[in-house]
Write a structure and sequence with these properties.
2 copies of one chain form a homodimer. Chain A is α+β, with helices and mostly antiparallel strands and 587 residues long. Chain A has 20 helices and 14 strands. Chains A, B: Its cofactor is FAD.
Chain lengths: 587, 587
């Protein structure tokens, strides 16, 4: 069984020196959130993750959820862990105080969410999706619905699900067929939803399903979708769960990974129709869905960081212990001393650090949006919107490579299930698929986030990166990396210009552009980290081992990841015609 | 359950137009091997793979090998399939006629081997390793040992295993501790071996274990290893299997994939010592092992092609059937029409084709070696030696990406085990690990294959590539790809020069150089294919759909894979210092 330790030094370095979290707290008027309180929260989360959640990770893999006559039975131990989780107040960390939440800044709750996802991704997926649902209900639901559901969702007393996909409607929500019929003060929902994460379990006494469906008078396509709250148990007037709704999980999937997270086929309205409540106006489900989805996409990107970190810790521990081969002096050594193993560990380490920095920076943009004046809000909203497909797409793709390296470092032992490396690799494979595939992220980036505003928001980011590069003071070893990064930023800018002039090819090139932007953002923040580390190292009280390592990590990133940007851009510019050149019959 | 169809057109195109197989047959004086006979062999292999082996692939995954008191029990159906396999003469295809083999050229047996590995990798791994053992026994064993064992190995009546790895000796064979003590006309072997593929089963009435062990007077390190034949059952004087030897499988591994292939921990000499027979001279086990290993490495590289082909067929079939999204005219379409899905399919298609071409070209080098005059043999041996780490390393790494795309194309359905995409992804994950990890291939390339001969053999290959590029006539659409390829060849040449001037960094940069050489070789053969396809298209009787597709595939390869060469080389040249810059404690 593998342990998990919160990478405190790196996370706090990013919080303090990359994100400038104290300034965010000031702007949010959360001055009580001093370093002592932050430390206490992170310490306690790290302890809970280490002692309770992480040990259940392999249990979830080996004793995944099952389905019985009375519904889905989660992994043994999960219910107790969930109870401790909510009792510890962890569910309500980011929730609004009005509904019982602790109102912590998004940046900080993101650090804590990384901890949960590293410790036990299957378990923590339940909270991740509940967060998205909370966001949607907070923004779009009526006060009445909020008063019934929101407090219990925030406290974690009830969990929530997102019901989008149907057998004929995966990435294409226009094809949704689930029906909603008006009846008295509610609706009757009927239809089948698939791939519903944590669609059923016995950990809480109710589950709040958010379900996309069509009203009878709905226009065709995505403009005819409405969002409904469909509770597993109808809520009594006193707020307690009452009789069973006509909604249930009918089967669960046998998946490559995340066995601890039940993926359900949900059946609504097999009998009289499931009772549901409209969220927001009719036919505005798509907007509600995007609120949920954007939140979840940031969360899934963060899962990419989290599982890479866990896989890295696992591989590192093996590499330090596994004796293999001899040095020139004849002494036998651990494989961590072999250059190619070291190369792989450094890929894992620096790749994970770069992702973490971007995940926290993207989260901090949420806080900046909250704190911003009305005049500045659109700028922060645009930046956040721009980050979302990069965080989701780039990070989850990079997590594939890093978790695979985690297996590779352990050689034959990595391929044996008992050692645990394979679980991270299998679990990670869902990340570029759910909450919008990598292809969808690419489309979102080039379409909604670049072409729709004529490149304005991406160029604003590129300007900021270019300006910062000009001011960074880095060590001599990093000078050439910084120079390469400056050139690379210009290449990405040219790539964006190319896109603006080749709109017809947008759908073929999205993924390559998204990957190049991701790698550039990673370099930007790793270089910022290196510059801060250099500046801090004049102070004798600082942790110099760490500050040196941070600079090495940035250099390695620049040398091993940054060259990928030019590769993706070259492919983007030359490679779209050949993509569609074959007739389907020629395959 | 997914079907497998032999990609006849592409395989035959490579045979006829990339490898020039008829010339190879001539040089081997195998003129009876005309196109009619070749067709008949491939037809029959394709039929057997389609009807018998492929349907057992998912069975092997779901009902993997088990271990009981009486040994390892293979997947239901495998024994019958194996019997049909040997009765059909498939085991003996490449064997020497002197020992009952059919003496087919290596190039052709490689095409057939691709078919087996695509249809059922776990099942066919048994034959692949038996081939390596046959090679070692043929080259190194005494006539007496050959007369006892070789014919039955060639016929497939007995299978064979390779016993290298021990708990403390994985990639590092110097650490082998298994002992061999001389006794009368044989030896007594004792020790434990792990990760022994097909170490036990009930498909045949004997198993020939090839075991590395140390004699009492052996020098330390790899120069003190000897190779022994240790049969599961001692062979009677009449050649039949007699009493049980003191050798058995004590456990099997629970693995990420290839469940149908039992991976055994073997115990030799728990009682009186297992009876073994020395192969070759004492202390020359390393050379024998390399004969086996080089053969197996080419085979594993071919598995990379094979499983990518299978994953591609599976994903393509899904992409053609799965309706999702609408065209501008409002009609609903299969996902194969979406540009990003098409991009992924083209990556799978062109990547697999490039690997196939290199696998067959490398195999043809074996045939050229056989046919060569004594004077020319060293050249062909050097080329074959050079190809081996590229075939093993590059192809198995590329197979990771392509089988992962196979999952990605199928989205959520790809993550569900029943659909089968995940099995290819899981099975493929062993390929960069067994028979020498990717790191080991990188070391082999830069050390034994480049530095040891001062770059002579790699420069001979690069010269050949450069010369051929000058003569190729390609279509207008491919002109810029050819130009890029010419530049890229020069970059690889510069990379080799860089290596020759930076010998101390060799161990850190092997993988990056190996990958860049692999991608270049792929471009070389895809461009050769495109030029041949263009030349052939003047002939009206040719399959023009295919010839056009071949050129599109080459173009796509050049645009989407070739830019990776520069990326790997840039990383190689700049990135070795940062690899080792951290102290172990700083991780």
């Amino acid at each position: 069984m593998s342990e998990y330790h919160f990478p405190r030094r790196d996370a706090q370095f990013v919080l303090n020196h990359v994100v400038d979290f104290s300034r965010i707290c000031n702007s949010l008027k959360q001055d009580e959130l001093d370093s002592g309180l932050i430390d206490a929260i992170l310490d306690e989360a790290a302890r809970f993750a280490h002692q309770v959640l992480a040990p259940l990770n392999q249990v979830g893999d080996q004793q995944g959820a099952t389905i019985t006559q009375s519904g889905v039975q989660e992994t043994p131990g999960f219910k107790d862990a969930y109870q401790q989780f909510t009792e510890g107040g962890w569910s309500s960390l980011a929730g609004e105080p009005e509904f019982g939440g602790q109102g912590l800044p998004r940046t900080l709750s993101t650090v804590v969410m990384e901890i949960w996802q590293s410790a036990n991704m299957s378990f923590s997926l339940c909270s991740l999706l509940t967060q998205g649902a909370i966001e949607a209900v907070t923004v779009h639901a009526s006060d009445e619905l909020k008063s019934i559901f929101l407090q219990k969702m925030v406290s974690g007393e009830w969990t929530a699900t997102m019901n989008l996909t149907e057998p004929d409607a995966g990435s294409d929500l226009a094809a949704i067929q689930t029906k909603a019929m008006s009846e008295a003060d509610h609706y009757r929902i009927s239809g089948q939803k698939i791939f519903i994460t944590w669609g059923d379990h016995q950990m809480t006494d109710n589950i709040v399903h958010l379900v996309l469906a069509r009203l009878p008078d709905a226009p065709e396509g995505v403009r005819g979708i409405s969002l409904f709250i469909v509770p597993k148990f109808i809520v009594n007037t006193d707020g307690s769960p009452g009789r069973r709704n006509d909604a249930k999980a009918v089967s669960i999937e046998h998946k490559l990974g995340i066995h601890g997270s039940p993926t359900c086929t949900m059946s609504y309205g097999e009998h009289e129709g499931a009772i549901g409540y409209l969220v927001g106006e009719p036919h505005t489900g798509l907007a509600c869905m995007f609120t949920m989805m954007n939140d979840a996409r940031q969360g899934v990107g963060l899962q990419g960081v989290a599982i890479s970190e866990r896989a890295y810790q696992h591989a590192l521990s093996y590499a330090k212990e596994r004796i293999q081969g001899v040095m020139r002096d004849g002494s036998r050594v651990a494989i961590v001393h072999h250059p190619d193993v070291r190369r792989m560990l450094m890929l894992m380490k620096s790749g994970t650090e770069a992702m973490r920095a971007l995940a926290y920076v993207a989260a901090s943009e949420s806080d900046k949006l909250t704190a911003a004046s009305e005049r500045n809000k659109p700028l922060h909203q645009a930046r956040l919107d721009l980050y979302t497909p990069v965080v989701k797409g780039w990070m989850t793709e990079l997590a594939q490579e890093l978790t695979s390296l985690g297996v590779q470092i352990q050689g034959g032992m990595g391929y044996i299930e008992e050692t645990g490396a394979a679980q991270f690799f299998r679990d990670a494979r869902i990340l570029p698929i759910y909450e919008g595939t990598t292809g969808i992220q690419g489309l979102d980036l080039v379409g909604r986030k670049i072409l729709m505003n004529k490149g304005e928001s991406v160029n604003a980011l590129l300007n900021e990166i270019a300006d910062e590069f000009k001011t960074l003071r880095v060590s001599e070893e990093l000078a050439s990396v910084l120079k390469t990064a400056i050139d690379t930023e210009q290449q990405v800018r040219d790539g964006v210009d190319w896109l603006l002039n080749h709109k017809d090819e947008a759908s073929a090139v999205g993924v390559n552009l998204m990957m190049s932007l991701g790698y550039l953002c990673g370099a930007w923040l790793m270089l910022r980290s290196a510059a801060k580390a250099l500046a801090l190292s004049v102070d004798e009280s600082e942790d110099h081992e760490f500050l040196t390592a941070k600079q090495v990590s940035a250099r390695f990133y620049g040398e091993h990841f940054l060259p990928r940007v030019a590769m993706h851009l070259q492919t983007m510019k030359t490679g779209s015609a050949a993509i569609m050149a074959l007739d389907v019959e020629q395959f």
